[in-house]
Q: What sequence folds into this?
């Protein structure tokens, strides 16, 4: 079944606005013209997409099923335009990139510098977050690539198999933390200390939980939960909380001797990082260029 991309755009805007009037204003159309466009799309689909009420427009079950596909169609159409413009030498292509903090702070600066030297018209939008949130953005089409810790593929997201590298994570503390006075550190020593960490439900939390469980222990007491990496590092460096971080995340603080790893071998972990894309659709040209650069400069491939 063929869809008119203009009608698809109108449908997505009305779904987001929840009102034909608000959507018409945003699209700079009259309400009758927008209403006709929606009705033509409904005729193509063969079913109503909205329930029309005096207070606005509500998606039907079929409308809700169509909406994510409509957004992907819009995304692919935009990507196709950028790809064609690039081939014609007209591109000001956009990379919509998501990354976890340890990647954005260490890997991305050199990577983007090299890519933009080759594609001076490139525009990059970077979203830094934890994997759980980045995966949702990727599925919705808000980002096109995500750089994060390797996890199993899903029905909607796949890793790019030839684009991998490693880093090492461990327990960290302030350089002047009292635990450093001990000649040997045991799990019990760090278990009873106050911790600051990412919230429960995130992949780093689940990974740390698995590592403690492998030693027959529950999670330590996490006094402060935060998604802010800057705040987390400040808590470790200045308030003497313990935490768990990959080495690239605190590299600058380690050089300044503000944060250092604690020698607890049982809780040292090497992780694999990789790039992820949506299983459906295709990558825009600028994203392909970024991946080429990432492959050539990765620590391991």
A:
């Amino acid at each position: 079944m063929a869809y008119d991309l203009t009608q698809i755009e109108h449908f997505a805007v009305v779904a987001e606005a929840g009102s034909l009037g608000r959507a018409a204003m945003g699209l700079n159309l009259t309400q009758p013209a927008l209403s006709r466009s929606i009705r033509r799309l409904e005729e193509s689909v063969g079913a109503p997409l909205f329930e029309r009420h005096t207070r606005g427009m509500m998606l039907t079950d079929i409308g809700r099923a169509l909406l994510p596909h409509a957004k992907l169609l819009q995304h692919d159409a935009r990507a196709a335009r950028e790809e064609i413009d690039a081939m014609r030498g007209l591109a000001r292509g956009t990379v919509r990139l998501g990354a976890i903090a340890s990647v954005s702070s260490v890997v991305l600066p050199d990577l983007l510098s090299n890519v933009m030297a080759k594609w001076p018209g490139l525009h990059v939008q970077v979203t830094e977050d934890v994997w759980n949130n980045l995966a949702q953005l990727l599925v919705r089409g808000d980002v096109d690539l995500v750089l994060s810790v390797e996890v199993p593929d899903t029905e909607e997201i796949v890793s790019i198999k030839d684009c991998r590298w490693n880093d090492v994570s461990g327990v960290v503390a302030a350089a002047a933390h009292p635990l450093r006075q001990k000649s040997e550190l045991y799990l019990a020593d760090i278990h009873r200390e106050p911790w600051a960490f990412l919230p429960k439900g995130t992949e780093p939390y689940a990974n740390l939980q698995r590592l403690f469980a492998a030693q027959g222990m529950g999670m330590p007491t996490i006094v402060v939960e935060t998604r802010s990496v800057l705040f987390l590092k400040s808590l470790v460096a200045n308030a003497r909380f313990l935490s768990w971080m990959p080495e690239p995340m605190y590299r600058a603080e380690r050089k300044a001797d503000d944060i250092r790893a604690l020698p607890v071998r049982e809780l040292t972990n090497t992780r694999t990082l990789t790039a992820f894309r949506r299983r459906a659709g295709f990558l825009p040209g600028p994203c392909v260029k970024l991946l080429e650069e990432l492959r050539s400069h990765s620590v391991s491939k």
